[in-house]
Amino acid sequence: MIVDLTAGAGTQMGSLQTSANLSCLCVSVRGGVQGFSTVVRQVGFNSWLLQGRIRSRKIQSLCVRSSFNNAGGSSSSEEKGLLLGAERDSSGSVVGFQLIPHSVTGDATIVESHDIVADDRDDLSEDAEQKEKPPTKLTFNIIFVTAEAAPYSKTGGLGDVCGSLPVALASRGHRVMVVSPRYLNGGPSDEKYANTVDLDVRATIHCFGGPQEVAFYHEYRAGVDWKYTALAIRYLWTTLLIADLERHMVIFMVHLVIIRLLAAKYRPYGVYKDARSIVLIHNIAHQGVEPAATYHNLGLPPEWYGALEWIFPTWARAHALDTGETVNVLKGAVAIADRILTVSQGYSWEITTPEGGYGLHELLSSRKSVLNGITNGIDVSDWNPSTDEHTASHYSIRDLSGKVKCKTALQKELGLPIRPDCPLIGFIGRLDYQKGVDIILSAIPELMQDDVQFVMLGSGEKQYEDWMRHTENLFKDKFRGWVGFNVPVSHRITAGCDILLMPSRFEPCGLNQLYAMRYGTIPVVHSTGGLRDTVKDFNPYAQEGEGEGTGWTFSPLSREKLLDTLKVAISTYIEHKSSWEGLMKRGMERDYSWENAAIQYEQVFEWAFIDPPYVR
């Protein structure tokens, strides 16, 4: 049986019904098809899930022939038969099909035969129907090239994004690969790499003044190909050269040097002409500025030096003999990327201002037409108050009683007086200037005069760590400071506190305020970047007195404004319980999933193909 999916966007296919056994089901797929959500929902590098209603006694194998359109709309004449092996759930039922790539099978023939009893399995479960995802208009090949990706490597929000967004995109039918370094702690004893396979492929590249051998590792997980190299991130391009790439609609969500290599060494010769590059700026304060002498290590032609040249002003130089000459890879990437993204809409505007652009504001302003912001999502399975393994009790928007139990358990754990009605304020984050810890420091003496409790979790500058210890000694019944970072404790603070304070000077996106709202903890934040985008100010008189908003924002960033806003939140907690519950529930009911963010990324992918790629 052959099903030819050539319908236009928006078409819905009916169920496939056969009365006889199927010896083979062939699906011929052509690009631009969105309406086969009931037939093929997920297309990953190694996984195609068949979710159509197949009423059949037996399926021996599934063959998929692909003939995708390229970015220009022309159809490839080549058709490939791809053999899919069956995937089963715990009961042995076939729930999907695993793509066996040509690189693995070669000329071998692999046929797997298992019965599918379709009596009552042809309809999707009630839960699945209720959570059906919006259809994907177009599917793309997407490659993330990143310095870190959770859970393998992580130092901050970049690791979270590159560990979660690829999975969300793969679940929506895109073919996704993540390329990242395998750092020194990624040896055989590291459990995070337990399922990775050494591909037994070695490549030699020339850098650092001589040839360097690169090893490659691979893991297929959650619909995504995770590939690791044993060399520094700037040379991950070699991985892409051996990757099994299709020739249509490739999106590079990439490290900055890769964008330059695309424009300088490949596109002028017609290579990757149908690919697009997108640079995702997580924190513009980190621009990849290095001494000018390191330029030759980037693998770029000499004539491209001017595109990366960055000269520091006199006042910023280290000494009188310092010429200030450096290379800035972010500058070069911003200049020629096909699209530019930040991790919130507010931050996409802030980086075009002198205050927020860190020297790149003029260049970014000149590229406003391709600059957008998309708020990060969170892992809603890990951060879920109804199932959180780290908290003392579970609760939900329908039953909030467990939150009080989490609060009293946290007070007991920290050695604070167990007082369910006392407002408990929390802070989780790095102890540094960006996070506004100095503002908290100046406000604490006055805040401690009120009937509140305050807990801080974080590490960073020694002066702030020492201050936390000293303050705990001064206010033994009101203040606790946990120096360091502990994931289970961060979950318990998020669940147990009534208020989460985030006085960041700038915050590209921020995740803690999203975690807090999902747990019914009310954020009080400085009105900047992603904090301003995600926290809506409480208005008790809106919606015919029902109220609206999920927290409080304040500006300017000052001790006085922080205290004034906190005191409004505290009085609302004490005196207006029904309004407080409304705040909690409005925050908990919002969609913070990566699925929501992935849909917005898809729109940007489509925009990227409207204009031709950059060629110098």
TrEMBL record:
Any one annotated GO CC term: chloroplast
Gene Ontology molecular-function annotations: alpha-1,4-glucan glucosyltransferase (ADP-glucose donor) activity; alpha-1,4-glucan glucosyltransferase (UDP-glucose donor) activity
Catalytic activity field: [(1->4)-alpha-D-glucosyl](n) + ADP-alpha-D-glucose = [(1->4)-alpha-D-glucosyl](n+1) + ADP + H(+)
Record's keyword annotation contains tRNA processing: no
UniProt key word Nucleus: no
Pfam families, sorted: Glyco_transf_5, Glycos_transf_1
Key words, A-Z: Amyloplast, Chloroplast, Glycosyltransferase, Plastid, Starch biosynthesis, Transferase, Transit peptide
EC class of the enzyme, as a word: transferase
Pathway membership: Glycan biosynthesis; starch biosynthesis
Family matches, as CDD domains: GT5_Glycogen_synthase_DULL1-like
Swiss-Prot/TrEMBL GO biological process terms: starch biosynthetic process
This enzyme's EC code(s): 2.4.1.-
Localization of this protein: Plastid, Chloroplast; Plastid, Amyloplast
Top-rank lineage group of the source organism: Eukaryota
InterPro entries xrefs: Glyco_trans_1, GS/SS, Starch_synth_cat_dom
Domain Starch synthase catalytic residue range list: 141-225, 260-365
Domain Glycosyl transferase family: 418-567
Annotated SUPFAM superfamilies: UDP-Glycosyltransferase/glycogen phosphorylase
UniProt family annotation: Belongs to the glycosyltransferase 1 family. Bacterial/plant glycogen synthase subfamily.
NCBIfam families: glgA
Protein name: Starch synthase, chloroplastic/amyloplastic
